[in-house]
Amino acid sequence: MVGSLRTWMLAAALVAPAASFGQTDIALELGVRTGYSLPFGTAVSQGTSGVSVDMKDVFSSRAPLWVDASLRFSPSLSLGAYLQYGFATPASGATTGCGVGGTACSGHDVVIGLAAAYHLLPDSLVDPWLGLGAGYETSSLSSTSGTQAASTLSSLSGWQLVNLEAGVDLKPMSQLGLGAFVSLSADQLSASAVTGGGSGTHAWLTLGVRGYYDLKL
């Protein structure tokens, strides 16, 4: 009888972890983020004229606000979509004319895309994660001077080729996470014919904070 009891205890010890591992709780993860971004690379290059404009000479920085909606297929893996609106700070100087002769400028940058994230320690209080995404980006720069109507100085649109992310979440609750992240995107945009045409490849380096909540489905 003792031997039989030991056999049942051993079987239970082996089966219980397997059953727990096999359970998959799908959750809808809703998140919000904000941060501070710096641009690198070329905003537009016109091959025929040889004119090349750096992104930092169009926008000096960006303050993004974005929302994420993802499905967590397992505690570690999620796949979803994101929408980002960036309040872009126009660069002052001769390139844009902003801040010169009473010219006021405003800019924005919008990205919509898909992303996947992998959480390294999903059951721990401190959960590091890695992310990979891609999407479509548009940005514009407008100016006003005196009583003149707003005019578009720059209008760019194209593909966000890749967005690499890494972050760390603190989880005070199993369904709630708060943390910090860094992201680096590579974007290839083209200028509209109205603003001179051409294309360029630039990058945004973003440092920020985020929060999310998992809704069990």
Report on the architecture of this protein.
With 217 residues, this protein is mainly β. It has one domain (26-216): Porin, CATH 2.40.160. Helix content is 10%, strand content 67%. The protein contains one helix and nine strands, in the order αβββββββββ. The chain has one helix at 2-22, and strands at residues 27-46, 51-54, 59-72, 77-90, 103-119, 126-145, 151-173, 176-191, 199-216. The chain has an eight-stranded antiparallel β-barrel with strand order 1-3-4-5-6-7-8-9. β7 and β8 (176-191) form a beta hairpin. The two termini are 44 Å apart. The model is unreliable at 4-23 (pLDDT under 50).
Briefly summarize what is shown.
With 217 residues, this protein is mainly β.
Keywords:
9 strands; Porin; elongated; single chain; mainly beta; eight-stranded antiparallel beta barrel
